[in-house]
Specification:
Two copies of one chain form a homodimer.
Chain A lengths: L24 H15 L3 E2 H8 L3 H13 L3 E4 L4 E4 L1 H8 L7 H16 L2 E8 L2 E8 L14 E3 L4 H7 L4 H11 L12 H14 L2 E4 L6 E9 L5 E10 L8 H18 L9
Helix pairs in contact in A: 5-9
The first copy, chain A, binds a DNA duplex (30 and 30 nucleotides) through α1 and α3.
DNA sequence: AAAGCTATTTCATAATATGAAAAATTCAAA
DNA sequence: TTTGAATTTTTCATATTATGAAATAGCTTT
């Protein structure tokens, strides 16, 4: 049904001036109801009306309409409204779309621009970190991880960010399998030291690879979560210790975490409820 | 946020007489757009407007409004509209209700790790199997059922596991409705053959989908029971025939059944007293 | 450079969404 | 049992606003 011969047409980014007001008010309010219904995990008509400060009559009609299309369910017994199966079905079509890597691209670009360092994206695969993509800095001296590279979890920023969010069982499993090979004098090879580092990482919200894989190279990484709050990917910046200095780490980490949060939201992910 | 002291009030099942007309027209049409967008897997403005026989101007405003709340995404590059992350997020709240999916998550993960194959969770809805979630294997070749997919009962492992636990009446009802469409040479299209297969399945405790839906793909599924001993969900592993070989089936089935039992217990379910 | 698409915006108008209040019903208390 | 309070659903008059046609502005192709 799709005709791939179509390309960009039409009107540009800004004509009038700024953001026009071409949203439909009633629809917008209706969506507000649906979102609220989801956020509060169901509720009775009056609860919802009060929460949104809208007329019960309107909310009632909105919910009835949603119900007509299966976007909302109404339990006669308890008089409680809930998100319906159709909302799940339609919403799930979101997953069929572009990959993590594609969604990450613009976010990584901005991260690179904000920090001036190469931005990386990686996931865990078979106990290793698989690099899915990167956006390189313009600086002449720069880190380079070709996409498709697989490297050890324990000596990578993204790897440690992911590890820090696994439960103890999985953690030990991965660490045992990999044997904590020593790459530089800074590599953490002692399992207990590694576990301690992971605890710090988890509490801090981001991981630091301080020359643990390559001498002279630092990396700051934060985890990206899926809808179930599981850490499924990591995003990082990496560069030479001469530019990523000790005192810049905190600042850079803010950008990295912000990018990770944005990507989490872009893939429909969920904060971080999982312990 | 919920006040459990509230109970049933208000007006009953039928007052006026039959179904009243208290749906909001514009909202209903907007939902039509969203559903179409999902069904057709994205599309350009004119494609959607034509498909729905609506004014481009209106469709544009509807989509813009959805975009404002994140229910739709617009890719400037390709001028293509798609279902957005917020639709997925809100729609996913549907799962929280049963909490089945939530409880299943860790169990599915362990099942995946034990078997090395993708683990799936599904329920029956409107005579079809609705996939609620999955945990993917790390293997590069793998089965992929996006959550939200609805597929035919008779050609799915989970579907057959559920069918095998229904009484004859419901069984024939569902099978009659679906017409046993043939997907591969292995699909069971003869009702009697299907009934026989279901008897075997019930006695055995797990269902096998041997390339009945997709050539080269096998699936092993077991039912999950609620408090009344009714089969309300199914849990399965699926993968290529090259890995899920004939002689591994018995072993894998043990893991699947164990996972199903654990999930049954996790949702307060009851062994299998029913029929 | 012009013609031909397609996406946006504007605008006048009719459609319809809306809140207030009434009606219908159930729950709890007297 | 009766009464009253709470809550959902409907009706109705009205103003809001959603809507399509047509105009506008960018692209793409000729």
């Amino acid at each position: 049904m799709k005709d791939s011969s179509k390309r960009t047409r039409g009107r540009p980014k800004a004509w009038g001036d700024k953001d026009q007001q071409n949203t439909i008010k009633s629809l917008d309010r209706a969506l507000e109801v649906l979102v609220a219904l989801g956020d509060m995990g169901g509720g009775t008509l009056s609860e919802i009306a009060v929460a949104l400060d809208q007329s019960p009559a309107t909310v009632y009609r909105v919910l009835s309409t949603f119900q007509g299309r299966g976007f909302a369910d109404f339990d006669e017994q308890s008089q409680v409204w809930n998100i319906g199966a159709a909302a799940f079905l339609t919403g799930s079509q979101f997953l069929r779309r572009t990959s993590l890597a594609e969604r990450a691209r613009p976010i990584m670009r901005e991260l690179m621009e904000a920090t001036g360092e190469t931005a990386n994206l990686g996931i865990e695969r078979d106990g290793k970190v698989l690099f899915l993509g990167q956006v390189e800095t313009n600086a002449t001296i720069r880190a380079f991880f070709p996409p498709g590279t697989a490297s050890a979890m324990h000596s990578s920023g993204i790897g440690k960010a992911l590890l820090s969010r696994m439960d103890d069982t999985r953690q030990r499993q991965v660490l045992a399998a990999g044997k904590l090979e020593q790459f530089t004098p800074h590599t953490l090879t002692d399992p207990e030291a590694m576990i301690a580092d992971l605890h710090t990482t988890k509490a801090r919200g981001y991981a630091i690879d301080g020359e643990e894989r390559n001498l002279g190279m630092r990396c700051i990484a934060a985890p990206v979560y899926n809808v179930y709050g599981e850490a499924v990917a990591g995003i990082s910046v990496s560069g030479p210790t001469t530019r990523i200095t000790e005192d810049r780490i905190t600042i850079l980490a803010q950008s990295v975490m912000e990018a990770a949060d944005r990507l989490t939201r872009a893939i429909g992910g969920n904060g971080r409820p999982a312990g």
